Amino acid sequence: MTMASSAPACAASELVARGRESAAVLQALLLGQQAPAVGGAGATPHGFRELTDQILRCCDRALAALRRSGTEDDADSGAGVRKRKPERGYSSSDSPARTSKRMRVRAGERGTRVEKRQTMEDGFIWRKYGQKEIHGSKYPRLYFRCTYKDDHGCMARRQVQRSEAEPSVFLITYFGDHTCCRDDEEPPAQFVINFGSSTSAGQPSIGSPPPRPSCNDDVLEVCKTPDLCNSPEDELGSGTDNVSEFIEQSISVSDLTRMSSMDWDPLNGCLDYWMLCDGESSFGIGEFIGHDFNYLDLLQ
DNA sequence: CAAATTTGACCCCT
DNA sequence: AGGGGTCAAATTTG
């Protein structure tokens, strides 16, 4: 990823200005003054919520842009995938870019994040590439990579494991950046994907266009400590004490739908995910679409 | 038939 | 040696 160091600052500046504008509108509404409608927001609870959401988003993204400007080098090296040395059975040309969790941890990989969620949905399209029984763990760990790994070279990955302490909760560990939607091009992810088991709804189900990965209401907690990625369940423990407290403000489905209609740009979309990768974000990725997928993989 | 998932095997690390 | 992450052939699904 290459970006001029001043670009994030400019973006942050724009975002702060946008956020301030929204704050001004909100203030006017609260004071009962006449205010121009922003995004259709009016002096209603819905309108207030919309404005506050917008303000918060702008602030968060601005912060992320600024942080990113100071840590780009780290992020580049951190999220990068190190190739293993050529292995037996692989030709030099097709030697896969395998990664080792230990290698990443040892190298201080950034861009890892653990979330406790009620759903595996996060707005991105993931492709399952593995499943492993974890020693001492009741539930298997599922391995996903971005569907657009091949098309866009997106190296985002995630691991999903059902919490033993809270079976209704998924511990999702994210690795790497989503580079599949950073360009000016239209974001590739325009579908909701439901990961299910092979025995039933094994194939992803395509539904209505999902909201942009930004705020969500099913993120219970987010742990931004990369080390936790080693073993989310172990390190998170049975409770929530070890997890940095983070409770997402709930967002209605209608809000999400509206958000999805926002103009797509890196600041409105994938930047949210960058923030996660920076481990500094105050909000999670993805949105809650529904709970209609099967948990059989993790139930066993 | 193309794309996604499953699952056994391989490899690295401790 | 064993655990964990990833690959890739086989299988399944739409």
Automatic annotation (TrEMBL):
GO terms for molecular function: DNA binding. Residues 69-114 are annotated as: Disordered. One of its GO terms (cellular component) is nucleus. It comes from the Eukaryota. Keywords: DNA-binding, Nucleus, Transcription, Transcription regulation. Transmembrane segments: none annotated. Coiled coil: none annotated. Residues 115-178 form the WRKY domain. Signal peptide: none annotated. The keyword Nucleus applies. Its main location: nucleus. This is WRKY domain-containing protein.
